[in-house]
Model the fold of this input.
Amino acid sequence: MNRLLALLIVSSVTYLITNRVLPAQMAARGTALALGFTLIAAALAGEIFGRLRLPRITGYLLFGILCGPYLGEVINSAMARELQVVNGVAVALIAFVAGTELNLHRLRPKLQAMLKMGGVTILVMWTGLWVAYWAAWPWLPLVPEADTLQRLALSALLSTVTVTFSPTVTIAVIAEGRARGPLAELVLAVVILGDLMLILLFTLSSEAVRWSLGGTPAVGAGLVSGLAWEIFGSLAFGALVGSVFALYLRWVGHELTVVLLAVCVLLSQLGSALHFAPLLAALATGLVVENIAPPQGDALRDAIERGALPVLVIFFAAAGANLQLAALAQIGYLAIAVSLLRLVCIRGGTTLGCRVAGLESPQARMVWMGLVSQAGVTLGLAVLVASEFPGWGDRLATLTVALIALHEIVGPILFRSALACAGELGKMDEEREGPDVLDDVHEAGARA
Done:
């Protein structure tokens, strides 16, 4: 009750400041106010959800939606855009944490089974959605006049975008719940490996659509070299940064929180400037630190806890504030139908994948609950389609935003429920008490 009262007071004061008292001065002070308010208020909302045994991430998202420019207007449009300043650092930090949780020595006995399950799951999902889209294409508000060949290519592209998962949300749920175990490892492996395969498939599908619509596909050495640079170059860049960071951990080991955030800034900013994928680069950095030069003691874990919490609070609250609810209202019924179809394909794909891979454990049967979330990767692919194919690409992006709005809310709840049923919540550090979450957030909010 005290936290709810504090949340209402902070939100009311901020609303008065932004909309009634000093609206003219907000252009100059919007960033500081947005960061400080979001750190404190969203963290309080997440704490309330945690006490209700719901994911704190869902609390951050719902806080952003309710207080964002489309509903409560406590956070106006300008403030919502300013909050996205942490997006690059947040994605890099989340991927780095994922890399540190992928211990190859521990996963090696199960790696072949994971690859089989992930491959079968994606194949079933993609094929099922492709057939459904092709059959229902005349009734979809995209390109209903497309001929048979165009429908095949367009359905393949739409299926690829719809199948994609969210490494960001998946990793964040695992980190927030301090989860470790077979289910967390299996879901994380399927999500990361699956999105790698889907990014390649997206490139091929885009070329097929361009060719079917009469364009000139960019095939040949240029396409291959571009993919190689983005994928293998990102991994090499991340491995190099990880090696340097591992040496710093071993020989210096001071001010790790500041250095960790600086590494994430380097991965997100320099990596993007060099046309690397920050998600892959940061994942490789974490893999190197965990598997080649593991740090001694709990120093890195403490640094991650201190540095990650404020960044994740702002990141997911900003994601909620920037969700375009008008898109969900515009094509809500279609988005719900596609979401249900995707859920059926996920369930069928994971069931068949478990059988093919020989995974019959109770944890394997709950993997489907960790594959529902969609976020940055899905939205990024939709934006690429909208920029490459104006007109129907914009309508596809609208449908994708509506799907993300549904899956960002439902996905974390399902995955956390699965982790709780598997008994994996808190396993990451069950032998020691973690720091007080609210103390860290309040301290970070005061600094902001």
Summary: The radius of gyration is 22 Å. DSSP finds 19 helices and no strands in the chain.
